[in-house]
Amino acid sequence: MYKKLVTGAVSLAFVVGLFPVTPAFASPHEDKHVKVLSVLSGDWLQVSINGDSKFVKIIGIDAPDRLTATTKAQCYNRESWQRAKKIAENAFVNLIEDETQGNEDKNGNLLRNVVMEDGRVLGTMMVRDGYAKAVNAKKPSFYQKTFMKYEKEAKAAKRGFWAANKCDGFYTKVR
After folding, report:
1. Tens of pLDDT, residues 114-156
2. Residue 91 neighbours by CB distance under 10 Å
3. CA-CA distance, 116 to 34, in Å (whole number)?
4. Is-contact 94 30, C-beta < 8 A?
C-alpha cells in the first residue's frame, strides 16, 4: 500500500511539473495591436478589438471633460482632446488591464492602461505635458506614483492647463 502511495505521489509531481497549474487570472488581461478608431477625449478612446467596437477609459488619469449631453465642457478640453488625437487616433496600441482597478466600469466600458506600440504610456504623456491630471485613487493603480510625479513636474513647469494664462488646473474655470 505504501509503495502505491509513493508511486502515485511521484507520478502526480511529474505531471504537475509538465503541466503547471496556472490560476485563471495569473496576469492582467492584455489586448495587443488594437486599432484606435476614435479619440473621444483626453482620457477616453474607442477601439476595435477583434472587430468589436469598445470604449476604453484610460486608467489613472482625468482629462478635461468635453461638452456632452451630461457634462459641461471644462477648460482646456479641446487642447487635451487634440493632443490625445495626435498621439493615438488611428494608431495601434496595447491595452493592459490593471488588476487593482478591475476589467470594466459600471457601464461596461473597458478600464485599461494604454501603451503605444513603441512602449510609451499614453497616460504618462498626457499628464507630463499638462493635458490631464493624475487620479489619486484609494486603490492605487499601477502607474499612479508615476502619474503623480509627472503631474507635480507639469505644475512646477506650468505646462498645459497649469500655465498661468490657461486654466490654472482645469477644474477652476469652465468654458
Report:
1. 999 999 999 999 999 999 999 998 899 999 999 999 999 999 9
2. 17
3. 10
4. yes
How distant, in Å, are the alpha carbons of 65, 72, 121, 174 from that of 69? 12, 8, 30, 16
The answer to whether the beta carbons of residues 132 and 126 sit under 8 Å apart is: yes
CATH of the structural domain 30-161, one choice from 1.20.1250.20, 2.60.40.1120, 2.40.50.90, 3.50.50.60: 2.40.50.90
Sort strands 110-116 and 52-58 into parallel, antiparallel or unpaired: parallel
C-alpha cell at 74: 471644462
Q: Percentage of the chain with pLDDT > 90? A: 65
CA distance linking residue 93 with residue 117, whole number of Å: 5
The DSSP element (H or E) to which 7 belongs, if any, is helix 2-18
Length of the chain: 175
